[in-house]
Design brief:
The protein has 605 residues and is α+β, with helices and mostly antiparallel strands. Among the domains are: 167 residues, D-Maltodextrin-Binding Protein, domain 2 (3-Layer(aba) Sandwich); 234 residues, Dipeptide-binding Protein, domain 3 (Roll), CATH 3.10.105.10. The strands form seven sheets. Strands 1, 8, 9, 10, 11 and 12 form a six-stranded mixed β-sheet that branches. α14 packs parallel to α16 and α15 packs antiparallel against α16. The protein is globular, with a radius of gyration of 23 Å. The termini are far apart.
C-alpha cells in the first residue's frame, strides 16, 4: 500500500481547472470559462470580511443568539442532511475530515490525524484517527475506530434512515437496501483502536475519500447508542453525544434537554473537549449559542439582529432588507458562495409531469428572474441554467453561465411561445394545460421561501394548471412533504442543494439517481428514474481528471434535457450580524460557523 496525501489526490483530480476552482467565498474573478462573467454581487466583499474576521484578535466568552425561521431536520449525524443540521453538527461533532473557514473546498483532518492512505488499486482507504478525543458526558471515554465503524453501520439501518447512501454503497458488504437493525459491514475493518480501513467494490477511493467529510463519519458510541438504535425510528436523535467543542445541553442520561423541536436549540461547552491536546483546529470562543428556530417573521428577525447585540440571522434576509444592507448599512453583512443552486423539482411520477413535453413547457414558460427577485434579485446570485454552479468543478464543461443551449431555458423571464410549442407536443392544442389534475405545491411559510413559492404558483397557473399551494415550516417542506414520495408533491417550492464535497458527483447523484429513490428521507424530489442517466453516473464515478469533469458535464446535460427541475439561481448567501459580533462564515455550507464566531470586546463595534 502506498501512502497518498489527500490534498495531492485532490490536486491530481482538479489540476485541469486549478485556475478555476477557488474557495467558495469567491473573488473578483468569476472563474471565466465559456459562460462569461458573473453579474456583480457582494461576494468578493463578503469573502474579504470573512478573512478579516479570521484574523481578528477575538476574545473568549459570551453567548450568541441566532434567529432562525426553521428547525434542523435532525441532530443525529447519521440522519441529518439539511444545511441547518450541518451548521449544528460542525461545532458539536468531529467527522474524519472537515472544513476550516479559510477554505470550503479542501478539507482538513479532524478526527483523523492525517490524510487518508489510498491503495495503488484505489480500492482501499485507510484512516488513522487521533488519540485522546473524548465523548461528551455521560459517555466520558476516548473515541475508538469502532465508534466510526458503528457510525457507518447504523447509517444503513432503516431505524436511523441515512439520507445519502449512494456515496457509500461502494463499500464491500454495504447493503443496497436499508437493513432491519444495525448489521455489520464486512468492508469496514478496525485492526486497532486508532485505525479504520474501508474496502471498496470499485476503484473509486479518491472520490470516496472526499466523502469522508460527511456527517456519517462522525463517531457514535456503540455501547451507548445501540439501545436507542434498536427502536424504530431510532431515538438517538434526542440522545446525541458530542465530540466537538460544543454539545447540545443534556442531562445525566444523555437526553438532549437543550433541544425543543420547533422552538430552540441550546449549545453549551463540551467539558471533555480540549482543543490543543486533541488536535482540534476550532478555537471555540463562545461560551454558548442559543438558536431560536421559530423566528418565522423574517423582516422582524432581520431588524432585531441589525439593531441588537450578540445576534446573527440564520440565512438570507428578505429582499427589502437585503437592499438596505447593500446600499445603506453595508458593514453588518457578508455574502458568501458555497457551491449551491436553488431549483423547483417537478415530480416526474405525478400527472401531467410524467410527460417530458409538459415539463419542458413548464421550464420554457417559467420566469426564473421573478423567482430570483423574490429572494433579493441580482444580489443573491446569477440565474442558473444547469446544476453545476460557478467556481465549481464541471461548470465550464457544462457551458458556463450559458448552459447547454436548450430552447426551454433560453429566456430567464420565460417564453410562452416556446412553452406553447411543448404543450402542443404533449397533446394540448391550445398551448396550455387543459386537464383537470390539481397540482400540489409545497413551500415555506416564511419569506423568502414563501415569496418564491408564490411566484412558482403564478408560473404554473399562467400555463393553465390548477395549483394548491400548501405553506409549512421550512424544515417540514423537506422532512414531511418533499422527501415523502407517498405525499405526491408535484412541485417542491423551496428546494436548494449545497455541495457535499467539491466534486460534481456530489451535486448531481443524490438528487437525480433513480436507484436512490427512497420511501422516506428521499432526496430525489423529482423521482427521476432514468436508467441511461444512472448508467452515465456510474461510468463517470470511475473516472478522474478532465475525463471525469467531461463525463459529469454530460450527466448534467442529460438531467437538464429531462426537464426534471427548474434551476433558477446559483445561490450566494447573505449573512447578517449585530455590530458587536465578529461573524465568521464557513464556505463549506455558507452559514455562520459557531466555532470561529465571537463577540467583539466593548468599544470595538
Amino acid at each position: 500500500m502506498t501512502r497518498s496525501r489527500f490534498r495531492l489526490l485532490m490536486a491530481s483530480m482538479l489540476l485541469v481547472f486549478a485556475m478555476f476552482v477557488a474557495a467558495c467565498g469567491g473573488g473578483e474573478d468569476d472563474g471565466g470559462g465559456d459562460g462569461g462573467a458573473s453579474p456583480a454581487t457582494p461576494a468578493a466583499e463578503g469573502a474579504d470580511d470573512n478573512a478579516e474576521a479570521l484574523e481578528f484578535d477575538a476574545q473568549r466568552g459570551g453567548r450568541l443568539t441566532m434567529l432562525a425561521a426553521s428547525d434542523v431536520d435532525f441532530l443525529d449525524p447519521g440522519h441529518t442532511y439539511y444545511t441547518a443540521g450541518f451548521q449544528v453538527l460542525l461545532p458539536t461533532h468531529r467527522p474524519l475530515y472537515s472544513f476550516h473557514p479559510d477554505n470550503g473546498d479542501v478539507p482538513r483532518p479532524d478526527l483523523a490525524e492525517s490524510e487518508p492512505e489510498i491503495s495503488e488499486d484505489k480500492k482501499t482507504v485507510t484512516v488513522k484517527i487521533r488519540e485522546g478525543v473524548r465523548f461528551a458526558p455521560p459517555v466520558n471515554r476516548d473515541v475508538t475506530s469502532d465508534d466510526v465503524k458503528y457510525a457507518f453501520e447504523r447509517f444503513f439501518s432503516a431505524n436511523v434512515g441515512g439520507q445519502y447512501p449512494g456515496f457509500f454503497t461502494v463499500i464491500e458488504g454495504a447493503p443496497s437496501e436499508p437493513t432491519k437493525g444495525v448489521k455489520p459491514i464486512s468492508g469496514i475493518q478496525t485492526p486497532d483502536d486508532q485505525t479504520i480501513v474501508f474496502k471498496l467494490k470499485e476503484p473509486t477511493a479518491v472520490s470516496f475519500a472526499q466523502s469522508l467529510v460527511l456527517p456519517i463519519s462522525a463517531p457514535v458510541p456503540r455501547d451507548f447508542a445501540k439501545k436507542f438504535d434498536a427502536e424504530n425510528p431510532s431515538t438517538y436523535n434526542t440522545h446525541v453525544i458530542a465530540t466537538g467543542p460544543y454539545m447540545v445541553k443534556n442531562n445525566d442520561q444523555g437526553e438532549t434537554i437543550g433541544y425543543s423541536p420547533g422552538k430552540s436549540i441550546e449549545l453549551v461547552r463540551n467539558p471533555n473537549w480540549d482543543g490543543e491536546a486533541q488536535g482540534d483546529f476550532r478555537p471555540a470562543y463562545l461560551d454558548s449559542v442559543f438558536i431560536r428556530t421559530n423566528a418565522t417573521d423574517a423582516n422582524v428577525a432581520a431588524r432585531q439582529v441589525i439593531e441588537g447585540e450578540n445576534m446573527v440571522l440564520d440565512t438570507n434576509p428578505p429582499a427589502n432588507i437585503l437592499r438596505d444592507l447593500v446600499t445603506e448599512i453595508k458593514d453588518q453583512y457578508m455574502t458568501i458562495g458555497a457551491g449551491t443552486y436553488r431549483y423547483f423539482p417537478l415530480n416526474t411520477t405525478v400527472e401531467p409531469f410524467d410527460d417530458i413535453n409538459v415539463r419542458k413547457a413548464v421550464l420554457a414558460g417559467f420566469d426564473r428572474d421573478a423567482a430570483r427577485k423574490a429572494r433579493g434579485g441580482e444580489y443573491v446570485g446569477p440565474i442558473a441554467t444547469h446544476f453545476l454552479p460557478p467556481d465549481f468543478p464541471g461548470f465550464t464543461e457544462s457551458g458556463g453561465l450559458e448552459g447547454f443551449g436548450f430552447d426551454f431555458l433560453a429566456n430567464p423571464e420565460g417564453d410562452m411561445e416556446v412553452a406553447a410549442k411543448y404543450m402542443r407536443a404533449a397533446g394540448y392544442q391550445s398551448g396550455k394545460y387543459e386537464g383537470d389534475e390539481e397540482l400540489l405545491l409545497v413551500g415555506a411559510n416564511a419569506d423568502p421561501g414563501k415569496a418564491q413559492s408564490e411566484v412558482a404558483r403564478a408560473q404554473l397557473e399562467k400555463l393553465g394548471f390548477k395549483v394548491r399551494l400548501r405553506l409549512v415550516p421550512q424544515d417540514a417542506v423537506y422532512t414531511e412533504w418533499c422527501q415523502v414520495p407517498a405525499k405526491n408533491v408535484a412541485m417542491c417550492g423551496g428546494a436548494a442543494w449545497a455541495k457535499d464535497f467539491a466534486d460534481p458527483q456530489s451535486m448531481l447523484e443524490p438528487l437525480f439517481k433513480g436507484e436512490l429513490i427512497a420511501e422516506k428521507g428521499n432526496i430525489n424530489y423529482s423521482e427521476l428514474n432514468d436508467p441511461k442517466i444512472d448508467a452515465a453516473m456510474e461510468r463517470a464515478a470511475l473516472l478522474e481528471g478532465q475525463e471525469r469533469l467531461e463525463a459529469w458535464a454530460e450527466v448534467n446535460e442529460m438531467i437538464v434535457a429531462s426537464a426534471a427541475a427548474v434551476p433558477f439561481v446559483w445561490d450566494q448567501t447573505t449573512l447578517v450580524r449585530s455590530k458587536n459580533v465578529n461573524g465568521v462564515a464557513n464556505p463549506y455550507n455558507a452559514l455562520w460557523d459557531f466555532s470561529f464566531t465571537s463577540i467583539k470586546p466593548a468599544g470595538q463595534e
